[in-house]
Design a protein that fits this description.
This protein has about 375 residues and is mostly beta strands. The protein contains six helices and 27 strands. It has helices spanning about 5-15, 20-25, 70-75, 135-140, 355, 360-365; strands at about 45, 50, 55-60, 80-85, 90, 95, 105, 115-120, 140-145, 150, 155-160, 175-180, 185, 190, 195-200, 210-215, 215-220, 220-225, 230-235, 235-240, 250-255, 265-270, 270-275, 280-285, 300-305, 305, 330-335. The protein has a ten-stranded parallel β-sheet. Strand 3 (about 55-60), helix 3 (about 70-75) and strand 4 form a beta-alpha-beta unit. The longest helix has 10 residues, at about 5-15. It is globular and about 65 Å long. The protein starts with a helix and ends in a 10-residue tail after the last helix.
C-alpha cells in the first residue's frame, strides 16, 4: 500500500512521476505516463495564435502569458475567459472571485496528471502574520466562487500530512472549494486526506448546482462534503490507509450539509468506490449539520454504483453528532453493487423504490442546466 509520504512525493514530482506510483493515485483509465504534447499548449493555440481573444496561457517556465495560475486569474477580468494551463506542478494557492463568471480552465495535455495545482495548508496551519490559523475554508488550495465555472483535465491537490502538525486538531486540508452555480468538472482529480473536495455554495439560501463527471477523488475523513446540489457521474472515489489509527472506522466518504429547504443534495450515480484500507474500515457517509445552519437536513443518494469491500456493509452510515442522527436525514441507495452494497441489516440501508428513484436523476437535480450534454 502506498504511504501518505509517497503520495506527497508524487505531487511534488507532478508530471514526471513514475507510472508505477501514478497507478496508486489515479483512476484506472489513466494508468500510463502523462502525455506531454510537442507544443506546450497542445491543440489550444498559444500567445501568438490565441484560441480566442479572451484566452490566456499559463506556463511554469515562461512560454505563456503567465507563470502562475493566480496571476492569470487576476488578469482575466470580465466574463467568459479561458485559461489554458501547460503541463507542470503549480505550487500555489488560487482564489477566483465571484465576478469571473463563465470561466474555463483547460489542462493543455488533456491528461489530468500533467497539470497539478497543489499547496499544503491545513485548518490548523498558522497564518504567516501570526493572527490565527487558516480554518477549513482557508486551507483550500483552490477556491472557486463564480457561477458558470468549468475545469477539464486538471488535478487539484492538498498534500498537507498529519505528520506536519502532530497532535493538532485542525487536520482538515481542502484541495478544492467550489461555491458557484453551474460549476462543471470533467476528467479532473481531487487529491488530499481530510476534506479533500468541498462542494458548497456561497450562502445558505443559494442552491448551487455542480456537476462532476469522469473524476477521481481520494481521501479519508469526510473527503467529499458541503451543501451544494452536486451530481457525481462516472466518478471514482478511493479511501486511503490511516497509519495513525489502529482500528475502524478510518473515515467517511461523504459528509453532505444540505440546507433543509433544498430538495436536492448529493447524487452519486454510475460510479465506484474503492479502498486501500482493510475491508469494512470506511463508512459511506455521515451527515454534517454545521453550527451555522442547525436546520440543515443532509441529503445523499447513491445509485447504480459499485461499493468496494472497504465500505462497512453492515453499518455504512454514522452520526457526526448524536443530536442529528443519520436516520433523520435524507440518505438513500438504489441498485448498488459490490461487497460494500450487500444489505445485511435492512434498517441500516435505506433503499429507494423504483418510483422514488425516478426523481433522483441528474436531470432532476440540475434542471435546465445540462452540462452532461457537452462534457464527455
Amino acid at each position: 500500500m502506498p504511504s501518505p509520504l509517497s503520495r506527497r512525493n508524487f505531487l511534488l514530482t507532478g508530471a514526471t512521476a513514475s507510472a508505477a506510483l501514478a497507478l496508486a493515485t489515479v483512476p484506472a483509465q489513466a494508468a500510463h505516463r502523462p502525455h506531454r504534447p510537442r507544443r506546450p499548449f497542445g491543440r489550444y493555440g498559444s500567445p501568438s495564435a490565441r484560441l480566442t481573444p479572451g484566452t490566456l496561457y499559463v506556463h511554469p517556465r515562461g512560454a505563456g502569458d503567465f507563470t502562475t495560475v493566480q496571476a492569470a486569474v487576476t488578469a482575466a477580468t470580465g466574463t467568459g475567459r479561458t485559461l489554458v494551463i501547460a503541463p507542470g506542478t503549480y505550487r500555489e494557492t488560487v482564489s477566483v472571485d465571484a465576478d469571473r463568471t463563465d470561466m474555463t480552465w483547460l489542462g493543455a495535455s488533456e491528461d489530468p496528471r500533467a497539470v497539478v495545482i497543489v499547496y499544503d495548508n491545513a485548518a490548523g496551519t498558522p497564518k504567516p502574520d501570526g493572527s490565527s490559523t487558516y480554518g477549513t475554508s482557508g486551507s483550500a488550495t483552490t477556491t472557486v466562487r463564480p457561477d458558470g465555472f468549468t475545469a477539464r483535465w486538471i488535478t487539484f491537490a492538498n498534500d498537507w500530512l498529519r505528520t506536519d502538525l502532530p497532535g493538532t486538531s485542525g487536520t482538515q486540508a481542502v484541495a478544492l472549494k467550489v461555491q458557484g452555480d453551474r460549476s462543471a468538472f470533467t476528467h479532473c482529480r481531487f487529491l488530499g486526506h481530510q476534506d479533500t473536495l468541498y462542494a458548497d455554495s456561497r450562502s445558505l439560501d443559494t442552491f448551487a448546482r455542480q456537476y462532476f463527471a469522469h473524476c477521481y477523488a481520494e481521501g479519508d475523513v469526510d473527503f467529499v462534503f458541503g451543501r451544494a446540489t452536486a451530481v457525481f457521474e462516472h466518478c471514482h472515489f478511493r479511501t486511503l490507509v490511516r497509519p495513525d489509527l489502529a482500528a475502524a472506522p478510518y473515515g467517511f466518504v461523504f459528509a453532505p450539509s444540505t440546507a433543509g429547504a433544498n430538495p436536492r443534495g448529493y447524487l452519486v450515480t454510475r460510479s465506484r468506490i474503492s479502498s486501500e484500507a482493510p475491508d469494512g474500515y470506511y463508512k459511506l457517509a455521515r451527515p454534517w449539520v454545521p453550527s451555522s445552519d442547525t436546520t440543515a437536513r443532509p441529503m445523499l443518494t447513491v445509485r447504480e454504483t459499485h461499493l468496494g469491500a472497504g465500505i462497512d456493509a453492515v453499518a455504512p452510515y454514522a452520526n457526526m453528532r448524536d443530536a442529528h442522527p443519520w436516520q433523520d436525514q435524507r440518505f438513500a441507495e438504489y441498485r448498488n453493487t459490490g461487497p460494500g452494497a450487500v444489505v445485511t441489516v435492512p434498517e441500516n440501508r435505506p433503499q429507494l423504490t423504483r418510483a422514488e428513484a425516478a426523481s433522483q436523476t441528474r436531470e432532476a437535480y440540475l434542471g435546465d442546466w445540462r452540462p452532461y450534454a457537452r462534457h464527455r
